[in-house]
Write a structure and sequence with these properties.
- The protein is globular, with a radius of gyration of 24 Å.
- Helix 3 (about 125-140) packs parallel to helix 4.
- It has helices at about 5-20, 75-90, 125-140, 210-220, 240-255, 255-260, 320-325, 360-365, 415-420; strands at about 25-40, 45-60, 65-70, 145-165, 170-185, 190-200, 230-240, 280-285, 305-310, 315, 335, 345, 350, 370-375, 385-395, 400-415, 420-425, 435, 440-445.
- The chain is of the alpha+beta class.
- About 40% of the residues are buried.
- It has two domains: about 5-220, PmbA/TldD fold (2-Layer Sandwich); about 225-448, no CATH class.
- Helix content is about 25%, strand content about 35%.
- The mean pLDDT is about 95.
- It has a six-stranded antiparallel β-sheet with strand order 3-2-1-4-5-6.
- Belongs to the peptidase U62 family.
- One of its GO terms (molecular function) is metallopeptidase activity.
- Pfam families: PmbA_TldD_1st, PmbA_TldD_2nd, PmbA_TldD_3rd.
- InterPro entries: Metalloprtase-TldD/E_C, Metalloprtase-TldD/E_cen_dom, Metalloprtase-TldD/E_N, PmbA, TldD/PmbA_N, TldD/PmbA_sf.
Length: about 450
């Protein structure tokens, strides 16, 4: 993996080669990564792995025709061949009046913000092993746990560099640390499994392995002795571990490409109330140590914190330059891409702001409700918003979490869910996309 300066220089040289070969415009991305991981099970070492890789990609334009190619070979000969191949491919590509780089006047410039994304040096395998063993030991110590599916600990690092013929050049690095544990509770046909994990940019921000393991064990044991709930309409609470998935569906629906293709259930909702009054949804790519933080987007635009939804009203789409041209708007700074792909969009640290009522208040809001802690399958129609997914969780009666439920489905439509949902006050920033407990006042619950 190249240093920041070397990765930026490699991307710059590739752009220069493309222009010298006759390209009208070009941009290049360098992506390097390394990772180490240790897996254990039942107190014994199962696997130690380490991977390192790097890739450089070129997007080359001949008028409104373009091609994108990538290579893991960074030698001069390989890069000459890459440029020649991209030039030939672009000549055969269809014309696209929306294609092109971001205009030079919109590009951001150094110095870029320091987002504190680089943590301590990578731990050695022995330290990772000890962390994984500690997590598994804590999980297996929970009364009712009968077996282990394993525990792991890992560390990673990455470098991203971008250069464009419009004059942009920049690079940034990030580190990551993780730990997870999974266990089985019970015996025979009544066995249940669950897990817990955490990741962070800095090791000092990572939950202790003992906390992660204990949570995995407690979750598995809580799922024992499940019952079948009644079918029909019921209030549904989404635990934070699954509530964030609603924001993933929302992000897809407001992506510029979905809107430009007229394939979004929020197609005509810009400037309209989509969520209840008081709801705020924030995109914050500049959060210090955030898992999705970055100092610029994958087209060289500045990124900023923004309220995508304010007081329930949809304020903006998320658009890279191509879909922005189709929609007649400015690109929004959400472009993302790999070395071998054209830009798409990805939110930064994305979250729904905490509401006024506590989790306990939401649990007690109805005489009976369903608390969902696991979602299964991908039954969401991005065009209509129809929503139907397998689920597991717990019956809630009188505000108290009761017996576990398995093999159920929950169904509604995302338009209605967004309009009526209420976030709790228990928001924590633990992932790249975060949500507190969310109450949806009515969904259809079915049993298998």
């Amino acid at each position: 993996m190249l240093s920041l300066d070397d990765s930026k220089a490699a991307a710059e040289r590739l752009v220069e080669r493309a222009i010298a070969a006759g390209a009208d415009a070009a941009d290049a991305i360098y992506s390097g990564s390394r990772s180490s991981n240790v897996d254990v099970r039942l107190g014994a070492l199962e696997d130690v792995s380490r991977s390192e890789g790097e890739e450089i990609g070129l997007r080359l334009f001949r008028g409104t025709r373009s091609a994108t190619v990538a290579s893991s070979d960074l030698s001069d000969e390989a890069l000459r061949d890459l440029v020649a191949r991209a030039f030939d491919m672009a000549g055969q590509a269809p014309e696209d009046s929306y294609a092109g780089l971001v205009p030079a006047e919109l590009l951001t410039k150094a110095p870029f913000p320091d987002l504190d994304s680089v943590g301590a040096a990578e731990p050695d395998p022995a330290e990772l092993r000890d962390r994984a063993l500690a997590a598994e030991d804590a999980a297996r110590a929970v009364n009712g746990v009968t077996n282990s599916t394993g525990a792991s600990a890992g560390a990673s690092g990455s470098t991203f560099a971008l250069a464009t013929s419009g004059g942009f050049s920049g690079a940034y690095r990030a580190t990551g640390f993780s730990c997870s544990a999974g266990v089985i509770a019970g015996e025979g046909g009544g066995m249940q499994r669950d897990h817990a994990w955490h990741s962070a940019r800095h090791l000092s921000d990572l939950d202790t392995p003992e906390k992660i393991g204990r949570l995995a064990g407690e979750r598995a044991v809580a799922r024992l002795n499940s019952i079948r709930p009644r079918s029909g309409a019921m209030p549904v609470l989404l635990d934070p571990r699954v509530a964030a998935s609603l924001l993933g569906h929302f992000a897809t629906a407001i992506s510029g490409s979905s809107v430009a293709r007229k394939s979004s259930f929020l197609q005509d909702k810009l400037g309209e109330r989509v969520f209840a009054a008081g709801i705020t949804i924030v995109d914050d790519p500049l959060r210090l140590r955030g898992l999705r933080s970055r100092p610029f987007d994958a087209e060289g635009l500045a990124v900023r914190r923004s309220d995508v939804v304010s007081d329930g009203i949809l304020q903006s789409w998320m658009a890279e330059s191509a879909s922005a041209r189709q929609l007649g708007i400015a690109p929004t700074g959400h472009a993302s891409r790999g070395a071998g792909s054209a830009p798409g969009v990805t939110p930064g640290n994305f979250y729904i702001a905490a509401g006024a009522r506590s989790r306990a208040d939401l649990l007690a809001a109805f005489p009976e409700a369903l608390l969902v802690t696991e979602l299964i399958g991908q039954g969401v129609n991005p065009v209509t918003g129809d929503y139907s997914r397998g689920a597991a969780g717990f019956i809630v009666r009188g505000g108290e979490i009761g017996p576990a439920v398995q093999e159920i489905t929950i169904a509604s439509n995302l338009v209605e869910m967004f309009a009526t949902l209420e976030p709790g006050s228990d928001l924590e920033f633990r992932r790249g996309i975060d949500a507190p407990t969310i109450l949806v006042p009515q969904m259809t619950v079915g049993t298998a």
